[in-house]
Protein 1
Amino acid sequence: MKIAVHIGGTDTERMLARQALTAGECEVRSIDGGSIGCLQGLFEERDGNLLAMTGTPLDIPDFSQIRDYRDAMRWLPQCNGAFAALYWDAANRKLVAVTDFLGFKPLYLRRGPGELRLSSDMRAMPGAPDPAGWGAFIALGHTIGDRTLIEGVERVRPATILVYDVAADRLEQEQYWRWPTPAGSRSSETADGDGLVEGLRHSVAEYAKYGDPGTVLLSGGFDSRLILFLLKEAALTPRATIVSHRDEFLDADGRLAAAIAGRAKLPYDRVFSSQHFFSSEAFLDYLVASDASTPSLYLFISQIAQFVGDSAVWEGVVPGYTLTVPHQPPGGFKAYLAQECKGRDAPIWRAAAVLFRRQAVEAMYEGFRTDLQAEMSKYADDGFGVSEFIVRNRMRNRTSINPYKVYENRVRAFTPGMTRAYWDIAGTLSYDARKQNRFYLDLFRRHFPAALAVPILSGNSLVRPSPWSVSFLYNRVLAVAARRAAMHPNVIRRFVPSGAFPFSYARSRFLDSPLLRAPDDPFLEPGAKIPDQELLGKAAERLLFHWRAWHWVQEGRLQEVLSPFLEPAATPSRS
């Protein structure tokens, strides 16, 4: 799913190589003043014009109607799904680039006098760290808006048509879709659940046209369960993959996923990550695939990619942000930032003050605050506005990185709900309609009552599917026992056999690399040491790791630097 273009230069092959592609895997075509490259088979050529598309588009129009850049501007935005498309009009010497309506499929841009670079991966265009981008990384765990972690490289906006005139060295852009206007404060009973379900059914039917049954990444939560029953309704029977979450609640997530798969008569594989995953080659692969663009050390989400096989992946990222209210408290931005944004007195910022030179920390913090204020000013200071902000920023720059960037390094990502018709409804749902899982539960009762046969794990809470659920009471007792056991790890180590149940993942051996501290890094404070205090020390250790790992990914030598610290026992298992 890789793509790159360089106009005003000829190093497209190097850009593709930085995306871990070999000459045998990609094609490079010369165009007037530059070149375009992508994975083999992505090019379509007609009358000297080129079309390349990456991602998994839906509702694909008849591309044979595209004969010049004007047609490309009209036809390419008709696609739904997550994609990025490039069209080269040789006669008019113009390049058209189109992003999907939510901008979930990454496309990065670097602009200079007489030069334009576009790429699906940031590491294709290495550069110096962007202080404001890193400030957001520290405070929120993701960049804001179109900024990236690389100075001078921006992410192309959602629903954007770029037109680059080579002769005039002029770049123009226009937007082809806008967020729907909220239609008042609908309750879960009056919201158009039927319309949303029809939109999801349409997505499933469109993905089925790719002819790959795919694999459902099944958890104990709402989103993958919804997809499971949508597929069952459509008579599609992919296999499920359940990645056990053994370090939380006695793996309630995995147990509930296996139970609902059994009820739906869907075959599944239950897989277990190694306790040493964060010292494994699989974790290094994840860092490379994600451009090391978000914090990932000790996070469960970063472990899933190692189990993605050769089939497309069904993923519930879209319902997860539209039918519930993840990471959103009641109220406006003040409440949201109090919950999600780390202030200057937080351990992570205090760690930054220890690790980085003073002027670097100030540039990071002030740049982040400026970006944050500018981005928040685009949205209403209420539940609707915060929801849109979360989608445009956290979902786009953090969560969607997994399906549309990491998984699509190997397979297609099938994410039901990636259509404008679905978002025209979902984008108008109020906070009150979605809070406390009201909308989801009502949708299941009306359309998929069998989905409520097993309790649901939403975040850290167990959701009762019905007042008389024995399974809910049983799992609640186990969850309480797990919480109390986790509070006394020394007792557990004494009475539970070694390896029987890991409550936490082993410390990453990569943190022991002496190269984490680069003596010539202009951002780092010379001679700074990791603090002895536990919270501050852990925050500093992780921040320094992510900082250096990002540099090594950009330089293309992450595996070279950290391979001596690989843990031989870091092998996943299946049942």
Note: Residues 185-189 have pLDDT under 50 and may be disordered.
Protein 2
Amino acid sequence: MVGENLFRAGQTNMSDDVLIKTILQKNKSRYGENLDDGDAFEYFCAEVVLKSFGLTFDQIEKGLVDGKDDGGIDSVYFFVNRSLIAIDTDMEMYKAPVSVDLFIIQSKVQGGFNETVFTKLQTAVPELISLDADLGILAKKYNSDVLEAFEVYRNGLTALADQFPTVNIHIVSATLSTATNAKVDAMLPSLGKAIEAKFPNSTCKVDLWNAAKLYEGAKKQNVLVKKLPFVKSAISHGKGYVFLAKIKDYYEFITQDGEILDAMFEFNVRDYQSSAAVNKEIAATLKTANDQADFWWLNNGITILAEEAQSQDNKLTIKNPLVVNGLQTSHEIYRFFADNGSDENERSVQVRVLEIDDENRRDRVIKATNSQTGIKPASLHATEPFQHKIDDFLLQLGIFYDRRKDYWRNKGKPVGKIIGIERLAQSAMAIMLERPHDARGRPTTLLKAEKEYRALFADTTDLKIYQVCAELFFKVDAYFKQNSKLIDSIYRNNLRYHLLMQLAWELNGARPVHPSALARLKVSNLTVATIKKVFDHTIVEFDKVGAIDKNAKVDSFTKKLKDSALVKTSSAAPKKVALPTDGSTGSNS
């Protein structure tokens, strides 16, 4: 069924656009350095529209596809069971019931709702989502970012076909307009129907977000304060509480406007889907309404960390709650009530709330409470002592290491000095291990294999190497952003990590770079002219093999860059990274 546009532009208060512009200017630096109003507005709209999904800024940035040949699309985000899907996501982990959400966002800071834009969308979206799309034709019409975003969607949907997913497509057009456009209003039903026709079991919802709706979304609390009622009394000791909460009350606690608050969860839920059987067992327990055993008898319960927690009138008020254990339970409770489930027996779930402001104790709780679950070990690496060492070392240099999602950005630190654990891993993969093709093609899975994690973050690695990796990333990122209008997206999208590898060679004067030499590189000596020279060379070599995404993801292209390097090849081979074979992490040096 084609969704109605939920908010008419004519309902805007004339002051709302002024408020949004003020918010935008105040927050512009959070999105990046030297952004113009239009680019900052794209980040802002994606952040507001997708607030309940709890995306990091890196994830928001990766969804931006704006540029030449974008088909009127500014950003694309593909979710399965509310988990953001990347090019290397293993779709086999998703078992029925499966829900797919595709968000396509068009944002325009000036000019209002424009029928030309919707005409573009009506042409572009149906052919981009079509599972039998002609890739040759699409390649001639759309830029590399658009092509990859929809390739991930089509491949994901094909992989999920035997799970019979429900498919929800959301078209959002956002603007600071204070006026309606009758022609646009008339186009909305036909746009929705054209999209639904490409997948019979899909629904399409077209929303117009004007200044008033954007303001309502923006003013929702970034500091989240939630109340959770408890049954009878809570056991309190020190700064911790243990109590029983009705499962219906817990559902209300983890949702807002009927949607689960993903920002409330420490890890992406897909890391916890160790087997479909576990989820099915929880779901079956919830559906057995007349069971004489209460739900909490059969379930290990929930652990929540809080900045502050206060008990009053049989309710616990929790500031910035973070669920660190019990994610499968939480999502199954959400699904149960979202699917119109009821609980006449008013069953309960056990909840622990711990008020912890010390980072080390916080990490200990996260690791301890997840030690018996099916979570992949790599998902807990952010809590490890060596990661703390990297964090502390980089902090002394004015580099802010985001082991936690957007921790430093939310504290107002300069964007050009913040690097997340995933980006640092990709940079180390390209520079230290000389595998930029893996950094490009496996952005979310590098840390999931223990052997590869230890190659990237062995606790005997000189910490100065991570400084070099971070500083090179910042240099290249700034270069790409400053020249974004001049660099075709096919190169910008594919060659970042290949460029990082070669810039390390350039600074060293030879390749390969021995770890001891890598730690001594002075990134401050790198000039824009050198970056341009190496990047131009990389583009030439990429064109020779065929400038398409898949060629940037294979080791044959990396070998070609090594063979055609602009620097001499050293006769001294770099020291090989030793990988533990016994499951140990080694000892600190």
Note: The chain has a mean pLDDT of 87.
Protein 3
Amino acid sequence: MSKPDDRTVYFHSAIARAMKDQGIDTVFGLIGDANLYMVDAFIREQQGRYIAAANEAGAVLMALGYASVTGKVGVATVTHGPAVTNTLTGLVEGVKAQLPMLLLCGDTSVEVRGHLQDCDQRALITDTGAGFEQLRAPSTFSQDLAFALRRAVNERRPVALNVPVDFQWQEVVYRKVPAPPPPPMGRVPAGEAFDNAVGIIAAARRPIVLAGRGAIDPAAKAALIRLAARIGAPLATTLRAKGLFNGETFDLGVHGTLSLGPAAEAIGGADCLIAFGAGMNIFTSGLGAYVKNRRIVQCNTDPADLARVYPVDAALAGDPAAVAEAIVAALDAAEIPASGFRTPELAEALASHSPLDGLPDMSTSTTVDARRALHRLGKAVPADRTVVVDGGRFMGSTWQFVDAPEPRAYVHTINFGSIGLGVAYAVGAAAGAPGRPALLVCGDGGFMLGGLTEFNTAVRHGLDLIVLLCNDSSYGAEHIQFRNKNMDPSLSVIAWPEFARLARALGGEGVTVRTAADLAAAEAAIRNRKGPLLIDLKCDPDHMAPMF
């Protein structure tokens, strides 16, 4: 609440106003004694939107989901001590995902020696790889907040702003600080590195243009499409840029271990890979197979992202859109002809291929084939949706059989390899893209590990969430390892409750699918949903497709 005196306000009101002035309109969190007054002021005085998570871990993941779909900084707030320790997995996830996020965390009173919830929050947070800023004094709140936000944007990672509880009711004079400017763009490297890249591309006979998450803005997309057309190259994306080239005739889809059919054949026959905004990890490279015996040109904005996993023949630190346009100009000036890699035969093969071609039906009398069920139910969800994929043995099937309309509509939750992050991520994604249903695919173990409580958060906030739960009543990755060693897998098998009933008990809707005949009812439930919906797909742990 603001003080009647116009010259001063209470600190908790001032920081809420500073958040609004910095363009923050949505905050995810869990309140405690170090942040409850600030959250109240943000809602009541600044008309901000606050989404109350059930757990601090969920709040951070929701902010990451929001950042992923909007491209803006996601904001979460928690109190001190155990609230902060609950955020640590999410912070590591955000660091590895390179998502800008602000964590406003409280801290215990400096005057109270031996406080029950006191801990070294700076050490805990920085050990995750996240940034840390200490709010220096009540009078520096606007400056410190703006600086933390600028760091989150420029460093592409979560940054925590640590706020002692003692400040909440102190009086301060409000002073607005300008919002941080966007990072500069348009840089093109000159000299030998650029000339070498152009030479490699000019000599290529079977080149592929690859886009990663760092090249998904409209300018980069248009420039990469022009470059690919100019050199006669098919287009491909990393998983995190999934959907960027939807509708393009020579779109190969995801490049790497997930490639199928004629796309995989084209990728396997390439002699040059020109990557923009891509980290070139082991999965994008097809476990190394797709970077052998070919020249690699890699362009990223951040020099630290170049040649980090595999050596490259030409490394360009620059803006993907500007670099692609400069390459086209250089090729035009030298009158370099296009390669012959774009053929009518390749176009026809890509157009006629179905991801289900040649796949055996892995259903049983009491379970469904997860791949076929995901493919069919994915088509029942509106095409303009956000797709969120939790961690588990079903991941590869989801990535291959469930489409996202564009990269911002695909949310990647396993940057840290953790299961159970998907529901909270999906809540944040649904809040960030309210016109789109959030379609989450998760497993039974992940849902129980981290999704159960935040499904109710989606209910409480009236979010459009559809959960396709691949339920093999086990921790599937461990189950298959036992099977591969001819060992008893019972240690990985768990008798869960009925998930459809559980979803209804949490205030949502629930449907169970045991056979292909039940899929029609699930499709109807998707069409007629009135709130968060969970569809429990019963699967056999011994009849599941490989993870990748």
Note: The chain has a mean pLDDT of 93.
Protein 4
Amino acid sequence: MKKSTLLLLFMVLVSSNLFAQKGLFQHTETFTRQDSLRGSITSERVWWDLTYYHLDISVNPDKRFIKGNNEIKYKVLESSNVLQVDLQEPMKITKVIQNGKELTVKSEGNAHFIELKENQVKGKEYSIKVYYEGYPRVAKNAPWDGGFSWKKDTNGNHFVATSCQGLGASVWWPNKDHMYDEVESMDISVRVPSNLMNISNGRLQKVEKHDDNTTTYHWRVNNPINNYGVNVNIGDYVHFSEKYQGEGGELDMDYYVLRDNLKKAKEHFKDAPKMMKAFEHWFGKYPFYEDSFKLVEVPYLGMEHQSSVTYGNKYLKGYLGGDLSGTGWGLKFDFIIIHEAGHEWFANNITNKDIADMWIHESFTAYSENLFLDYYYGKDASADYVIGTRRAIANDKPIIGQYDVNSEGSGDMYYKGANMLHTIRQLINNDEKWRSILRGLNKDFYHTTVSTADIENYLIKKSKIDLSKVFDQYLRTIKIPVFEYKIEGNKVTYRWNNVVEGFKMPINILVNDEKICLKPTENWKSKKLKDTNVVIDKNFYVRIKKL
């Protein structure tokens, strides 16, 4: 955690109240105290800063049972004696130890309040060890409805994986389950039957065999990591690897796939180094050289687990063999490799403080799909792709969710968000400047958690364009700007409709292939033209109404 937690709490509360006061969106969901305990920076969270986890567990796939402990190290920011740890039912905390003494734990649903006996001195570091066990929630439709996926491969071997974005990592292990505070480093030890392997985040440190026909795989994460990015993947894996010469030097790229899929994986995973080359161009250095990059096959579609990206796209191009854009360009790459790996920059390097701002993860990463195409197939191909994805936009509710209650916004955070960014690229009208802004985001917010305000202010400052109303329009309302125009003689008359107050985004028109920039407002304006053959630039995500 790089900034004052107390200041962060104040800013989050102010920003959420400000948006409500502006009347830009209204939320109708009903939330509970459990939602607040899960989604807010409570007084039992705010006073301590995570520094280290050691998650040490045994997984019994036959019984679908896990047991173990998590050592939690922390630095005291302000003295207190009650510490909140999260673990979701039906998992149970069995005991908590600090300096050899068992502590009292008072539970309220999925939040557990640990009463510390030792005086917690500001500036000093302490640790607790939380022991737990249980039958974790089974994922019904991973990764969207997460938990543990307990499957079998075609040879009858156990094939097990975790996924928990949104739901929270506390669905299967005890932790400080809020996005604002990332642990600085982590060890992960997972004991499994000896005929299987466990693949987790970071680098493999050692493999420890036991007399009871089990084996423990010890992994180390050297970089800050968000809780939902931590994963366990258990299967009859085989491994292959390659070295990539990137912006940070030599990068280990490792691949773990089911035994029967080795041949096709070696061909299909050629998209991985292509991804790395394109994204280091657009976004800057891969953020986790110390922890390597891995693709790991799993029994669900895939997820952006940090340095351990999971893959289940059935070795098909596109999204399970389909093209989300309907243009054909989506079949030029494996969607899961490109999209989920794109999250290494937007989600794992730059992480939202509150899940209400999850658009920071998903909009930029959905946009990364067309930047991959831009790098290999050109700007027109990439534009066609992102414009094609507009057909997936629902405009059902605002992209930004409600703060402090673990509430995501609309699924439009993917392709409406991507088209907002594509529109901003047109406004900047300088591709190298746009690229420098994307790279600057990943450099200046390297390994930090951020808010929407952080990203908005950065884009406004670096572009030197007032984008505030653009963000209000696309992130905080479901209204799509309507560009109304009419041709009268040798002039075009035009304005914006269906927009937030003060919206005055420029837009380009083409007149006999000549690009002309108009600057509409909510009031009618006119401009003389040499010709009345007017085409509105399709790269702007707006609706067109010719009167």
Note: The chain has twelve helices and 29 strands.
